[in-house]
Amino acid sequence: MKTVVALGGEGIGPEVVDATCELLVASGMPVTVLTPPHGAAAQASHGSPLPDDTRRACETADGVLFGAAGGPPSSAVVTWLRWAKGTYASVRPVKHYPGSSSPLARPDGIDYVIIRELSEGLYPGREGDLADLARAMPELKDKVGTRVADYGPGRFAAKVVTRAGAERVAKFACELARRRKARGAPGKLTCITKSNVLPQSDGLFQQIVAEMVKRDYPELAHEHFYVDDGARRLVRFPQQMDVVLTMNLYGDILSDLGAETAGGLGMAPSGCFRDGWAYFESVHGSAPDIAGRGIANPTGTILSAAMMLDHMGLTAEARQLEAGVARVYRDGKALTADQGGKASTKEFTRAVLDAYRAQ
Ligand code: NAD
After folding, report:
1. Residues 6 or more apart from 341 whose CB is under 8 A from it?
2. Measured between alpha carbons, how far is 160 from 158 in angstroms, rounded to an integer?
3. Is 256 a catalytic residue?
4. Which end of the chain is more exposed for a tag (fewer CB within 10 A), N or C?
């Protein structure tokens, strides 16, 4: 029996996580679900949004499924899952399921993965007063020679790229591209940065990725695009993508874009990995505009659970669950409102359970 810790978070997070966990249990998979206190409720009862026992449960479980963060109590949970736990590769499949509501005329065959570097870049937020930066680095100048002190009052954010951080996520992406190639994918790594404007930070990331592919993964094709052109290509040529590796903020934005082209934000899953540990969550946020109405699309969370099952070694169950989701979209009878249907979160989930059992 495998143990899963489910943390709903905020907004629609608990709705889609509860539905997904009910599905896992009702399906008869060898999975026990724990729901330790977290977020606002834990803040009230334990004085902390993430009590020590909840942290320990996450660290020792076979799988961790998170819903969505919104305000400070639930964002403290995601801050811990990402930055305190040091997860550095957010794997975000972008896949079209026929029957889903893509705005593209020809979405068939979209099947690629965005890897968002999760630990560096502009996250987890190093901001400050420009006057402090001017005192610390009086000679720091922009491209036209203006010193920070000459800007006047304001704020700054620091973007960080380290060689070690870029190397570990590049290796992760190359290994994934190699595994996908063995299963019939083209074996291509697309790196996206803004190195023309930020040659020292983004340029270092681009250089490390290019060096690693050339040196250690010669069987992989490799290309690089600036993020503006990269965004356009993800819309125009999504079927040409295989593994797309990009920096933290670009990955945040491009994965919403990719999700929408494939079928909708509510359908996009993710798994966030470090060496030896991972947690899983949908790409979407807490969706306060629809929270509490029972109409959220749980597909992103169900597919995140499928990724989690695969990670836990329940590969057959993971495949069967994804096949169940695909069947519900193909049938088109129990789709949620974002997909043009009338089904509630629970009705959609029930249809996936029936399709899972019918596989
Ligand atoms: P959002 O992803 O919550 O919602 C964007 C739009 O997509 C909304 O119209 C929403 O109704 C819709 N949507 C999202 N998921 C859906 C689903 N499953 N089914 C149907 N419709 C869905 O983004 P936002 O509104 O910009 O942010 C709301 C909050 O979520 C903010 O506090 C933000 O910081 C947070 N957020 C958290 C995460 C995370 O936990 N990983 C990710 C993104 C945003």
Report:
1. 332, 334, 335, 348
2. 6
3. yes
4. N
The catalytic position among 88, 123, 250, 279 is 123
Cis peptide before 103 (omega within 30 of 0): no
Q: Where residue 124 falls among pLDDT bands split at 50, 70, 90?
A: confident
Task: Ligand 1 pocket test: pick from 284, 335, 347, 352 the residue with the most ligand atoms within 8 Å of its Cβ.
Answer: 284
221 CA from centroid of ligand 1 (Å) = 34
* Pairing between β-strand 269-274 and β-strand 277-282 as defined by DSSP bridges: antiparallel
| Catalytically annotated residue among 18, 252, 310, 338 | 252
d(CA 335, CA 351): 9
Cβ–ligand 1 distance for 290 under 6 Å, the answer yes
Q: What is the pLDDT of residues 178-222, one digit of tens each?
A: 999 999 999 999 999 999 999 999 999 999 999 999 999 999 999
